[in-house]
Specification:
Length: about 90
């Protein structure tokens, strides 16, 4: 029981340390959000609506079978990837 308490305490401490964001990380994340939102403006409401006919048919076929349609997108600022010091961004 004592060992389990130590493990839980260690996990909580690690989680708290990981949540301490530094100002440069927050600033880079905010730049990333602005660039991503700017990139999304001309996009249709549903992503599949903006695909070519062939891509749309393939995506809709997958979706109709209950599968997931996944497309890798990347956000760039002035053609370059956005450096996020001490952080990772996944969306």
């Amino acid at each position: 029981m004592f060992v389990a308490g130590i493990v839980v305490l260690a996990l909580l401490t690690a989680t708290l340390a990981a949540a301490d964001l530094q100002p440069p990380t927050v600033a880079a994340f905010n730049r990333y959000v602005r660039a991503t939102e700017a990139q999304m403006v001309p996009e249709p409401f549903l992503r599949v609506e903006g695909l070519s006919d062939v891509e749309r048919r393939a995506a809709l076929t997958k979706l109709s079978r209950g599968e997931v349609y996944i497309e890798r997108l990347s956000t760039r600022e002035a053609g370059k990837s956005i450096d996020v010091p001490n952080g990772l961004i996944h969306h």
